From TrEMBL:
Protein name stated in the entry: Crinkler effector protein N-terminal domain-containing protein
Annotated compartments: Host cell; Secreted
Keywords (A to Z) from UniProt: Secreted
Species assigned in the record: Linnemannia hyalina
Domain Crinkler effector protein N-terminal: 6-97
Lineage of producing organism: Eukaryota, Fungi, Fungi incertae sedis, Mucoromycota, Mortierellomycotina
Amino acid sequence: MSNNLLNLFCLVDGEATTNAFPVEIESTKTIGDLKGAILRKKPNDFRDVDANKLSLSRVSIHDDGAIHDKTELNNPRALLSTLFAASPDDNTYIIVQRPPQVHAPVPARPSPPQLKSIPKDLLEQELEVILNDIQLRPTTPSVDPMEVEAFQNEALGPFFKRTLPHGETARDIKLVMLGLELDKLTRTSDGETLHSIVEDDIGKYCDRRVVAMVAPSGSGKTATVVDLASKHFVIYCVCCIPSTTISPGFKDPNFITLAEDIESMYRSVIHRNQGRSQCAKDIDSEVKALAGERVKLEFLARLLFLQHLLDDNPDLEPLQFFREQTTKGAFTIGDLVYKLKEYDHNTIQAMLSKVQAKLQSILVSKRLGLVIALDEAQMPSSTAKNQIQSKFRRGFLTPLSATLSNMRATLVILGTALSLQDADHVYSAIAKPTNFSRITEFPRFNEKDVIKTHSKLVDMSDCEIPPAKRRKLTGRVRFSIDVVERLATRCSTQDSKQAILDDAVDKSIEHTMNGLRIGVRTILESDKTNEAARLLSRMVLAYHLQDAKISFSSQLQSDFVDKALCRLQQHPDGVHLIMDEPLVVEAVEEELKSSGKDPTFIDKFQFQIDEINTASGFGYMGSGMTADLAFLTACPPLVFPDKRYAGSLAIKFYSNDVPQVKHKENETSSDIRACFLMTDGDKLNSTLAATRHSYENAGIPSNVKGILRIHLEFPRVKGVKPVTQVRKDPTTRAIDVMVYINNENMDSFFEESIKAYRRDMIKLKKLIKYVCVS
């Protein structure tokens, strides 16, 4: 940016910050000039509004969404340089307000240009005219393979092994185009692959399949679509807005225009109905119909682009078509959209039917399928709603999927944060339960896969990734791919090969961690009930306690965890899920701690009491005593710091003071050595006796040399005041610390005057209070 050029983020009053748009203007210009620049940037939003009538304010909007430091910009002659002495920070916005609505008579508006209506018998001729207008548009140039190899050899240096996929130019490495070369095949719950679904749809005129691919970023969704595009023609659409960074590395400018047009339609309908009695349902139906018409026009342009390429080259390869859409072809599609806006919706519908019929006849004869793929589908679901007046708004994903599901193509919807609930919106939109499928389980990416991936793509001789770091790269192929991309952009050529690899791995882990932490932080900041924090704490517990196995009481909970950046896999037992992504767990743990919600202490404690109550809840097989035995013989760190020492907790709540006899029984309840024993012996219960014998044979009772036993008895014990004491068995010489807490010593139990441990004491004291009043 030059020294006198300002980049100001502007925001229409009442909209979310995600709809902010940048305006570049010289600092020597005035407030009046800024108003004109805003009008030119957003002509559809301020149609029939005089620039001088706009009201501007400079504000600061922080993460909490609140507006601070509001300054009215009233003087149209004021220089911007006097208002912005330095470049504005990320929290600075210019709020734009339209002039208030005037109810006095206004001059009649000029009639909009007449849209063309073409008779059906002239449609073919009209389509030829449209396609002839774009004949001179350049397509993506071919790239010399020798030039690609020469560049990559230089970029990768000692790591060069083979030529990797390139982008638009030879100097552009695009590893997303590897497709499923590295990933493993994924299937629906019925065992179908995406290829088999598409091939089954070839030749169908209606009831084509709709597939929702649900998984976090880096799981292999886009790779699956790229692999599909190597065999079948895929109309590829990346749902994005200007302020987003899209994971496939491609921003779809035509979808940005589509989203802006839809937003403008919503705003126009709402503005037109202000002060009227028209019900929200009617308004919603109107904007749905308008959105559907615009979607049809958009995909008519994309289908026409495919027809245009096939007319020029009948032997066009599907993968080349995929490349064209993400490079120069995007501009051609934009030209087609602009041209098609000259026609009315009846003509657009007729053109769409004719183009689909022609493409189907061409592709069916070659046994090629046609697919519409919506990548990053969470964007229309989450950004094009609740921005103006939520009662009039419907998520864009619903009309988008409803319209596309009626086309002669298999519809595939995938997204980084697309939840199963969003997939249900798709299901309800298409209203055809027989043709809707979900792909939610993607194969795990383990340490062997990490080694295989790197060995396949780059030369790993004379260097290796340390096991601890390699473990962090497991879970998703994206984590390993990022390392390769960093090797191609290494800064130093003087370092050793191992040093270069170490640097690439460290930066990749740091980059991935930052992204994961941002996602977790967003969840925690919007967590008003603390339920998200509790569920994320369960993830940490499951990972540390029992091989990352976890179970959920509802589909919504497992869907939430999946949406919280963690891939879930079905355990062979059919009950538990596997959550085995070290970086995700580490990110969750760090964010819980930094937010004051420590997963290893308060939340873990709460989880034991309210959520688990049995060892089976921690993932140990069986029920009742079987699970308890497995839990205790495994000696998990939560209870056993090592196998000689343990921690135990007994919580007893009563409506009245605890009787002496009951208090004595309570004392033995926390003795881990006495598990699976009855006060009158074990002969009356053969199952209990067998469990006890198994426990003794494992050596756990005899190995325990000491237990920290915390007893909470409420409200208090009758006739005696239990005191904390150290008990030593004269025979075994085992030492137990018995800690008693009740209503009498709750507030005075911990001495907080010792500065070195004061914070720990306060924390533990709050923990116990928290347990007792929950």
